[in-house]
Amino acid sequence: MNHKLKDKATDRLFEAILTLRTIEECYNFFEDLGTVAEIKAFAQRFEVASMLMEKKTYREIREKTGASEATISRVNRALFYGADGYKLVLERLKEKESEKKTDAQPR
User: Fold this and answer.
1) Phi then psi dihedrals of residue 37, to 5 deg
2) Is-contact 44 67, C-beta < 8 A?
3) Does one domain contain both 26 and 40?
4) Which of 21, 29, 56, 92 could form a disulfide with 51 if both were Cys (CB 3.0 to 4.6 A apart)?
């Protein structure tokens, strides 16, 4: 964890985010919190991280997401040398998607 980032205000923000229960609540909160461009930038970076984990090439990622090579490179550094936040949530999403598929199968 980056200790430059950690403070009471940021803790409170993250606590607030953890209270959100639905995607609709997330849209409402983040729309109030940031600009459309900021939210889209976060979404793009997250998509880039997901594609990097799937071993997609920079070209494939750029074509699908519109992300610049600098953005892809920055996300790649965070993904492989950062705090493992991307890896944690991507693994959890993968597990959740796997559970949905299992639950949808007839027994």
Assistant:
1) -65, -40
2) yes
3) no
4) 56
Q: Are residues 30 and 54 in contact, defined by beta-carbon separation less than 8 angstroms? A: no
CATH for 41: 1.10.1270.10
* Pair of tokens at residue 21: 């229960």
Residue pLDDT, tens place only, 7-54 = 999 999 999 999 999 999 999 999 999 999 999 999 999 999 999 999
Q: Is-above-0.90 flag for pTM?
A: no
Indicate if 42 and 91 belong to the same structural domain. Answer: yes
Residue type for position 61: I
Number of domains in the chain: 2
